[in-house]
């Protein structure tokens, strides 16, 4: 399943896939080692699938900035559940600095992973040190589904992060919610 993609300044497209076995469970688990394909001709042809490292998991976000690809990888095989179940399950910042040919783990991100899942990224001025994060919305009913984010007005006085997410309000019935986080000048 293709979940994320980036485009670099040369126009190369890299699509990241969740590889999973749904033969016994239609919930897209367990997870295998995530893979990717590259198109160097604007999507006309694609490379064979290549694996990212050797750890099983799921890429929750992919971003490109100034020659570097950044991936948010949740290292979790999902053999029990898609949320983190052991201390071996963690969030990782994986990068490629050569157009997607090679990837390496830059850091483990201190986001709580036990009984948690999903995630997204955005670029801030201090990307080296991580804070503990905060909840925007805590699940109160059933199962939520998907979320996405988009930074608009980047570099302007109107810069903000738009977040769209589903939220269960009763059993597994969901609504789509939107939040915006506005950057304040200090």
Question: How would you describe this protein?
Answer:
The chain is an all-beta fold and 186 residues long. 0% of the residues lie in helices and 40% in strands. Strands 1-2-3-4 form a four-stranded antiparallel sheet, with no helix packed on it. A hairpin with a 7-residue loop joins β7 (90-96) and β8 (104-109). It is globular and about 45 Å long. It starts with a strand and ends with a strand. The mean pLDDT is 81.
Mean pLDDT: 81
Distance between the termini: 42 Å
- Radius of gyration (CA) equals 17 Å
Number of helices: 0
Low-confidence stretches: none
Q: Please count the beta strands (DSSP E, at least 2 residues each).
A: 11
Instruction: Tell me the structural class.
Output: mainly beta
Strand % is: 35-45%
Shape estimate? globular
Task: State the share of residues found in helices, binned by percent.
Answer: under 10%
Oligomer: single chain
Tell me the major beta sheet: 4 strands, antiparallel
Order of helices and strands: EEEEEEEEEEE
- Largest sheet, spatial ordering of strands: 1-2-3-4
Write the layout of secondary structure elements.
Layout: E1 2-7, E2 13-17, E3 35-39, E4 50-51, E5 57-65, E6 68-75, E7 90-96, E8 104-109, E9 147-152, E10 160-170, E11 173-182
Antiparallel strand pairs: 1-2, 2-3, 3-4, 5-6, 6-7, 7-8, 9-10, 10-11
């Amino acid at each position: 399943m293709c979940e994320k993609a980036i485009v670099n300044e040369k126009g190369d497209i890299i699509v990241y896939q969740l590889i999973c076995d749904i033969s016994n469970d239609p919930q897209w688990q367990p997870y295998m080692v995530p893979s990717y394909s590259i198109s160097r001709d604007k999507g006309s042809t694609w490379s064979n699938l290549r694996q990212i490292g050797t750890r099983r998991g799921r890429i929750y976000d992919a971003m490109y900035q100034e020659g570097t690809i950044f991936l948010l990888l949740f290292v979790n095989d999902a053999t029990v559940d898609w949320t983190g179940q052991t201390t071996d399950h963690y969030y990782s910042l994986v990068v490629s600095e050569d157009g997607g040919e090679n990837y390496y783990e830059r850091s483990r991100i201190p986001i709580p992973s036990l009984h948690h899942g999903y995630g997204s990224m955005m670029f801030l001025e201090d990307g080296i040190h991580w804070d503990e994060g905060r909840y925007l919305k805590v699940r109160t009913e059933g199962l939520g589904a998907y979320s996405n984010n988009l930074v608009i007005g980047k570099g302007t006085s109107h810069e903000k992060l738009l977040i769209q997410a589903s939220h269960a309000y009763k059993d597994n019935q969901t609504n789509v919610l939107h939040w915006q986080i506005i950057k304040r000048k200090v």
